[in-house]
TrEMBL record:
Residues 85-95 have a biased composition (Basic and acidic residues). The lineage of its organism: Eukaryota, Discoba, Euglenozoa, Kinetoplastea, Metakinetoplastina. Residues 1-31, 85-113 are annotated as: Disordered. Residues 41-68 form a coiled coil. Keywords: Coiled coil. This is Myosin heavy chain, putative.
């Protein structure tokens, strides 16, 4: 019976030792996992910040490009309106394709088809030869 008790005690100690080793290993693995999580979280936060900076820069670039294009568009509309008004002020410059009424303000869009149908120059070659 002493032998059985000694064997049982030895088996219990062995199991306790294995349990302790498993707990220690799990603790190390948990610490490593937490370190990896923190490192990954830090890298992710850095990427998010970098992406936000890039988005802000792209928005600024887009806004600047749009402002430049808007200024060009306004200049084209002003020139178009000046050409139309000049044609309207001189009856000999009127033709069948140009608008017969004053143009809208420069902030009012004009359909591309209308612009394409208008003469390329303020005076057409036929008008110039008259």
């Amino acid at each position: 019976m002493v032998e059985a008790s000694d064997a049982a005690g030895k088996s219990v100690r062995e199991l306790e030792s294995r349990l302790s080793a498993a707990v220690s290993e799990a603790s190390h693995e948990r610490a490593a996992a937490e370190k990896l999580i923190n490192t990954t979280r830090g890298a992710l936060n850095a990427m998010v910040e970098e992406n936000q900076k890039q988005v802000e820069q792209l928005r600024a670039d887009h806004d600047q490009a749009r402002a430049t294009m808007e200024a060009e568009l306004v200049a084209h509309r002003e020139m178009r309106n000046a050409r139309i008004n000049e044609r309207l002020s001189h009856p000999e410059l009127r033709d069948g394709t140009s608008p017969q009424t004053p143009p809208p303000d420069t902030d009012v869009p004009v359909a591309p088809e209308i612009v394409r149908s208008e003469p390329l120059y303020s005076v057409t070659l036929d008008e110039l030869n008259m």
